[in-house]
Structure formats: structure tokens, C-alpha cells
Amino acid sequence: MKYEKIISGIFLERPNRFIAYVEIQGKRETVHVKNTGRCRELLVPGCTVIMEDFRDRPGFENRKTKFDLIAVYKKIDKNHPLYNQSTQSESLLINMDSQAPNKVVLEWLNSLSGIQAYDYIKPEYTFGNSRVDFYMEKNNQKYLMEVKGCTLEKNGQGFFPDAPTERGVKHLKELAAASKRGIKCFLAFVIQIPGVKEVFPNIETHPEFETALKEAKAAGVEVLFLQCQVQEDKLIIKK
């Protein structure tokens, strides 16, 4: 997926989950944060952030803010495992747009060809008491896929979640139940951090998620780690 127009700024503070104050071209602006997670290790005062700029877009006058915060440069040092893979010498560009994972997964699923391609793909599929991110069919086999974006990095490894997620636990339980009924189920982690290859349960934040993940895997749910190419104006699943 590609953002139409972007602009950089300096993060100042985040008064609540939905907005932040950012210095853009010397002016303090209120911007929409496209991630309601904590992101405390990312949104550090003084860090460089990337926004999608809506000022020249149709319907701009109906928006409450001119910009959406979509990415951030996280400072790392030379001893960090991802230092040589960073987009700047001492900064790691992380896409933190929580709407991006589902968009890039849909692009990825539609790009599959040959024996990997699905015959039918439906986003936002109602299953049980929830909506699962994707329902697919191929050769009379039914598939369900739940997508989670990973923006939390510790020592070169990805972790999820960065805040307690009862919704995430519920989804895992429903995938486990569906798997026992013969539906092929996936939990797909879209890794929005360049160089990170795996995602681990963040036990310190939500131990119940680790328990639910173990139970889901035991029931046959397959976990996918979708590595991404991360650029200021682009996010693409590459592996």
C-alpha cells in the first residue's frame, strides 16, 4: 500500500489515544494518531514522525485534523541487532498505522498466483460472535485469517500486544474452535518493523494472550510472520 502524500515532523506529546501534537514546518499541529495502542516506546518527545498529508485532498474540509500520524523513527544504537538494517544510521523506521496491516494483507492475498492463489477472498467475515479479518476458499477448503500488526520491538524481536487485548484473546479462541471444525485457520502477524522476522507473545503486558495463542496452535491454528518493506510512504509484504 502507498500513501498519496506524506510530510515529516517532530513529535511533541500525546494527550490521548487519538491525537498528538507535532511540530510541522515550525508550527504546532494537532494530528490524528492511527494507532490506539500505547506506543510509549515509539512516541518519544523529540522523535521524527511521518504523517499523511490531507490538505490537498477532496473532502479535506470535513476532517478534524490535517494530518494522520502513520510512522515513526525509533532511535537505536550501534549495539542494536537491527542497526545495520535500519533506514538511517541510528534510526529504525516503524510503520504504526493500525489500518495498514489489513490493507497490505488484502493486496498480498490478491497477488498470490498458481497453487497459492485462493478462489475466493472476503474481508470482514462474520463468524460466530465476531468478525474475522478474512475468509478464503480454495479447492473446497475453507480458510479463516485473523491479522495483527506488530509495532513493538525489543532487542531485534517483535512482540504483541503492546497493551492488553481481550478482543485478541477472543479471536484466538474462535479460530481454535473453527480449526477443530475443519476450517484451516491462520493468525497472521504483519511485522511493521524492518528486519524483524518473528513475533512473540508480550507476556509482561498480557499473559492471557500467550495462553490463548498456545491453545490455538495446539488446535491447529497456523501462525504466519509476514515481513514487510517499510518506507515513509509505503508498506508492502515482502516475505
Structure description:
- This protein is an alpha+beta fold.
- The chain contains three helices and 15 strands.
- It has a six-stranded mixed beta sheet. A five-stranded mixed β-barrel has the order 1-2-3-5-4.
- The longest helix is centred in the last third of the chain and has 15 residues, at 166-180.
- The two termini are 15 Å apart.
- The mean pLDDT is 93.
Protein traits:
single chain; 239 residues; alpha+beta; six-stranded mixed sheet; five-stranded mixed β-barrel; 3 helices; 42% strand; globular
Our estimate of the beta-strand percent is: 35-45%
Oligomeric description of these chains? single chain
Question: What general outline do the C-alpha atoms trace?
Answer: globular
Average predicted local confidence, pLDDT: 93
Number of helices: 3
User: Into which percent range does the helicity of residues fall?
Assistant: 10-25%
* Order of helix and strand elements from N to C terminus: EEEEEEHEEEEEHEEHEE
Question: What would you call the structural class?
Answer: alpha+beta
Tell me the radius of gyration.
Answer: 19 Å
Question: What is the count of β-strands?
Answer: 15
User: How is the largest sheet built, in terms of strand order?
Assistant: 7-8-9-12-14-15
The major sheet is characterized as: 6 strands, mixed
Distance between the termini: 15 Å
Q: Which regions contain 5 or more consecutive residues with pLDDT less than 50?
A: none
